[in-house]
Amino acid sequence: MPTIRVIDREGKLRELEAPVGWSVMEVIREAGLPIEAACGGCCACATCHVYVDPAWLGRLEPPHADETMMLDEAFQVRDESRLSCQIKVTPELDGLTVTLAPEF
Amino acid sequence: MTDSVVETDMVIIGAGPVGLFAVFEAGLLGLRCHLVDNLDKIGGQCAELYPDKPIYDIPAVPRCTGQQLIDNLLEQIRPFEPVFHLREQAERLERRPGGGWRVETSAGTVFESPVVVIAAGAGSFVPRRLPLPGAETFEGRSLFYAVRRSEAFRDHRVVVAGGGDSALDWVLALQPLARSIALVHRRDEFRAAPDSVERMRRLVAEGRMRLVIGQITALEGVEGQLTGLRVKLQDGREERLDCDRLLAFYGLKMELGPLADWGLELDRGLVKVDTEAFETSLPGVFAIGDICTYPGKLKLILSGFHEAALMCQKAFRYCRPEERLVFRYTTSSTDLQKKLGVI
Ligand SMILES: Cc1cc2nc3c(=O)[nH]c(=O)nc-3n(C[C@H](O)[C@H](O)[C@H](O)COP(=O)(O)OP(=O)(O)OC[C@H]3O[C@@H](n4cnc5c(N)ncnc54)[C@H](O)[C@@H]3O)c2cc1C
Ligand code: FES
User: Fold this and answer.
1) Scanning every residue of chain A, which has its alpha carbon at the shortest distance from the alpha carbon of B250?
2) Is B2 exposed, middle or buried, given 0-12, 13-18 or 19+ CB atoms closer than 10 A?
3) Cα–Cα 20 to 30 A to A96, which of B60, B66, B221, B232?
4) A4-38: per-residue pLDDT in tens?
5) Whose C-alpha lies nearest to ligand 1, atom 39?
6) Strands B270-272 and B225-233
7) Distance between CA atoms of residues B324 and B338, nearest Å
8) Domain A3-100 is classified in which CATH homologous superfamily?
9) What's the rounded Cα separation, in Å, for the pair A71 and A66?
10) Rounded CA separation B241/B33 (Å)
């Protein structure tokens, strides 16, 4: 199973087993890390905001227009910002590293 | 604030799908309902978070959007003439000395009823606040998340943050009043209606307002009074904007809100209920839909509908203790059909 690496808001790194087909948000949420994901993964809330390790950014499917729009409601958005519910785990993403964005 | 008291059978806190269906089930039993919601529209999460997204798991409705579900529910409950109190938050719940409950809203509306139904979903939708150091010291004095009175912005140096309809609508509405006005948004594209975006761009071209593409990184001011903001521009440079009124629109979030203090037994921010009548630890106060919890609870609309039906059976006994409740089908009961207005 692929592993994704998640850095929490205290800077602590965790390696999580990531079932293929789940979203990165689901992996983070099921591990009990603090991610609000208020809309449950429907790209309707922006509370699953993460920063993707720049080394990985180009290897992800680019965001859909929906996701870019929704990111407008997030805060402290950067070039490497993504909504984690919109990133599907695939075998190629083994080792993907993301950082939880600040909560608000 | 108001001296009149609304007396009714059932006060429903939350006008999401589950609160709406409770009106139907209550209506069949002859109970009248008032609903309170602090959103400006009916429909809870379905209308606010996903009006255009499809739902596939409503029994016998293979597919409908969030908004269609709400529109259909409204049609279904119309015969029962529910009364809606929108843009009001239920703030207080108190036991009445003579029995029953008293609910008071943020707008000062007071309800008295034998039954209160909490159908509050994941809590009230409230504006997301600016997560910047010191922001709370400015809130309500020079930093706002909604406009109560436009006059409060007259002759001020106003900055509006956001790219949706609220942000654009208020930029356009306040521009004639303000001494100066700027819109700050992360990128040069807007979710707002194209027509408002067009009007905003025209004002910018005429030099009557500014559009700043960037993100607010710091607030400046003393004792609750803003004097300026720092904005990080797209190219990484930082700019300072003069500002004494900031209006920030970063979407809505859900917060448990005042009901945390009502003395209800809670479990991780949800209201504990029994599964026979979905009654809380306070007799006559029920909780249904996403806000309630019990072993095996699923946060699905269909579960909320079931909870509403069972809840009403017991609620009836509080409202009409002297009457007997007979179980009937809408298909065959002329009494129910009369209530529905179909015969
Ligand atoms: C994107 C998305 C997709 C979904 N898809 C499905 C699906 O396909 N199938 C399904 O079954 N479910 C789905 N759900 C879940 C479903 O929307 C919820 O289960 C449902 O909305 C719960 O209804 P409710 O009436 O309990 O609460 P809500 O819809 O949350 O409504 C509660 C209302 O109460 C108001 N409120 C709360 N506290 C107060 C107060 N103190 N004073 C005044 N008002 C208050 C809130 O403002 C809100 O409007 C989805 C949810 C999301 C976010
Ligand atoms: S969980 Fe809501 S946008 Fe991802």
Assistant:
1) A73
2) exposed
3) B232
4) 999 999 999 999 999 999 999 999 999 999 999 98
5) B124
6) unpaired
7) 19
8) Beta-grasp domain (3.10.20.30)
9) 9
10) 49
